[in-house]
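step=encode ok
step=design start
structure_in=
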């Protein structure tokens, strides 16, 4: 009581010009001289190489298609292939979908990544909507065609990106989130045996689900659904896998930042004293949510002070401690973490959990190509409110600029709402017990 709390700012200044920690996401980087499809050497030229790669996707030999996808991924990752996309969009999309339908796990992983990079290149609009509509069924079927971690992780990342860019309303976003949640927490059917996913798959699914949740400001799922989601995410905080704990902590922080559970508590307050059956159910649910809040607070406190064990990476342990200190400060006092990342001498800032989750996800997906993309992509610049130092570097102006602007305004709505909220609004220790 009466104590002054000074907001702690977590400023991670990383100059992309000097940062060598990023790992390239493609297993092949085109040299300045040549690339190889099968046994045929192709002299390197940006346009001709891309065309050669497209042609190679029609080959029967899977290894040839894989090498072509590797070359395309490398090209997309480090340069916005805008003119190429305008001319070859439909061909590339359909060939990648064919690779997902009939290819090996490696080919499916590469094709999924290509589709995600294609979506970020075209930006919001008719093309991105078409990508989501045509990809959702093949991706869903591929999830059920095997449980290899690398394949499932690539499919999840692809679904997250194409939904983020191309979804035309909350219903489409919710559909993708439901697919992800079924992977996170598979439920048994009458004649179905649920296979427990690996820790990396659950971690990626939670991160992808959270990434899409950042676009769902104002979403009103049932209180039962929120309660189930928070209960399960809380259980992941007790998991042995550190990455899974961090992903679950971010997801829970986002849920509280959106105020969804607090809104439910406020709405149900008037029914707590009701003596009818529905009133009694509400009272039980209210009590359960209040208990969950306390449990999550204690879990965050423990994880922020966890001691290192045998075989524990010091870097990973410090990442966990720092992250859950952020969670703890947010849950107790309402202060979200603030980060700053320097790209080409210009600061990119995040001020909310929503922004931080979007940034972290896209950095992981683009790897070493993130700095290049955000300096050239109008869409990503609008998402993060980022203006590069030399605007004449921007290579891409979306042909669907009106749609682009409307979509990014929707994505940024939560940014403005979150920044304008009063400190303490999100604090889970401020309940209705004393009302």
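sequence_out=
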């Amino acid at each position: 009581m009466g104590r002054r709390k000074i907001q702690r700012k977590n400023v991670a200044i990383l100059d992309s010009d000097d940062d060598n920690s990023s790992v390239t996401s493609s297993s092949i980087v085109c040299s300045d001289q040549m690339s190889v499809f099968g046994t045929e050497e192709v002299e390197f030229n940006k346009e001709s190489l891309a065309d050669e790669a497209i042609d190679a996707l029609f080959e029967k030999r899977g290894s040839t298609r894989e090498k072509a996808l590797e070359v395309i991924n490398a090209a997309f990752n480090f340069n916005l292939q805008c003119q190429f996309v305008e001319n070859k969009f439909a061909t590339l999309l359909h060939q990648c979908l064919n690779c997902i339908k009939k290819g090996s796990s490696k080919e499916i992983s590469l094709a999924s990544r290509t589709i995600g990079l294609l979506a970020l290149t075209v930006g919001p609009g008719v093309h991105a909507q078409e990508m989501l509509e045509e990809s959702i069924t093949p991706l869903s079927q591929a999830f059920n065609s095997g449980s290899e971690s690398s394949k499932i992780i690539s499919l999840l990342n692809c679904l997250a990106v194409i939904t983020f860019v191309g979804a035309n309303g909350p219903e489409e976003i919710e559909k993708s989130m439901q697919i992800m949640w079924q992977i996170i927490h598979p439920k048994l059917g009458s004649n179905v045996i649920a296979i427990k996913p690996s820790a990396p798959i659950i971690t990626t699914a939670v991160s992808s689900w959270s990434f899409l949740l950042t676009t769902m400001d104002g979403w009103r799922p049932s209180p039962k659904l929120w309660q189930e989601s928070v209960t399960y995410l809380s259980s992941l905080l007790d998991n042995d896998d550190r990455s899974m704990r961090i992903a679950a902590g971010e997801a829970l922080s986002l849920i509280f930042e959106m105020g969804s559970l607090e809104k439910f508590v406020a709405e149900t307050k008037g029914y707590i004293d009701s003596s009818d059956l529905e009133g009694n159910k509400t009272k039980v649910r209210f009590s359960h949510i209040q208990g969950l809040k306390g449990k999550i607070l204690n879990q965050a406190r423990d994880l922020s002070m966890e001691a290192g064990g045998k075989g524990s990476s010091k870097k990973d342990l410090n990442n966990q401690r720092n992250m859950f200190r952020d969670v703890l400060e947010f849950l107790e006092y309402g202060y979200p973490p603030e980060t700053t990342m320097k790209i080409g001498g210009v600061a990119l800032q995040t001020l909310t959990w929503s922004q931080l989750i979007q940034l972290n996800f896209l950095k992981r997906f683009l790897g070493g190509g993130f700095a290049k993309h955000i300096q050239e992509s109008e869409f990503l610049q609008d998402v993060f409110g980022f203006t590069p130092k030399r605007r004449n570097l921007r290579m891409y102006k979306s042909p669907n600029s009106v749609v682009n602007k409307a979509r990014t305004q929707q994505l940024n709505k939560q940014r403005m709402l979150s920044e304008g909220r009063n400190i303490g609004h999100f604090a889970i220790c401020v309940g209705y017990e004393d009302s």
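step=design ok
step=annotate ok -> The beta strands are 34-37, 40-43, 339-343, 346-350.
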